[in-house]
Write the structure tokens for this entry.
Amino acid sequence: MRLLLGMVLAATFAYAAKTLDVYFVDVEGGQATLIVTPSKESILVDTGWPGFNGRDAGRIQAAAKAAGVKKIDYLVLTHYHMDHAGGITQLVEKLPVKTFVDHGPNRETGKSAGELSAAWDKAVATGQHLVVKPGDKLPLKGVDVQVVTADGNAISGPINGGGAANSFCGGKTFPEDKTENARSTGILVTYGKFRMLDLGDLTSQKELEIVCPNNRLGKIDLYLTTHHGVNASNAQAIVHAVAPRVAIMNNGAKKGGSPEAWQIIRSSPGLEDLWQLHFAVAGGKENNSADSFVANIDEACEGKYLKASAMADGSFTVVNTRNKYQKSYAAK
């Protein structure tokens, strides 16, 4: 009887200890975020840049190997720009993709846009294809991945306990953005009480549409700074409304990380820490986080990644693979 009880308790503990793991891969100011669920399903958000002798696809593959992932179940394309979609051809040569997810056709035109669309379409032909709209969810076990923005549209009603009036709205307005940035596919990832928000390169006019006059997104724990932490995005009205506990900036040494955006993020209510994939050269010591929170210090770097591991109770830990520094954030 005691043996049976011990086995049950051990199994219960093992289940409870399962984590949602997020690998913020360094693609030098683009995006490639690998999410691995407790049931070992995988979601890759974007593919980084093309070229560089397959640098970004290689870094994604290395993170996948560390995670024990041999294929990508869902590849979510936020939008058709080279720093997010350009690595698609090199990626599918290294990792098979089961389902390709996007907001529909590329809305930009011209030679470069056409070549990028053709490369994406060629890759999509090797697997399944899912076009998403706000409100859609990826069919995953135990983890909720909900689309909150896509193709210039946003969720129409509150989710995640949202819906309250947003006191940070009003006053500042932003120009219309007709590029693919404004059409970014954004997702809210939920695992138990843990919440992570990734809005791709969504620009500020569209950010305000989700949170003004009412915040439809609710509060979150982990915020991937939008648009690599530039001031064309990361409006105070959205950052302060969702009030992340931790922010991670997917910047490059010389791309992303605008001081104005830094200030908005750092002054957000309840923010505990801001982690960075790179030391931003233009920001200087006065803006960059302490070295222990930065995955890559030198401009010519090894491409170290940050890893977040979340428990269903809402607690999570962030690890810097460069120096093995880690910090845990208790459940709230």
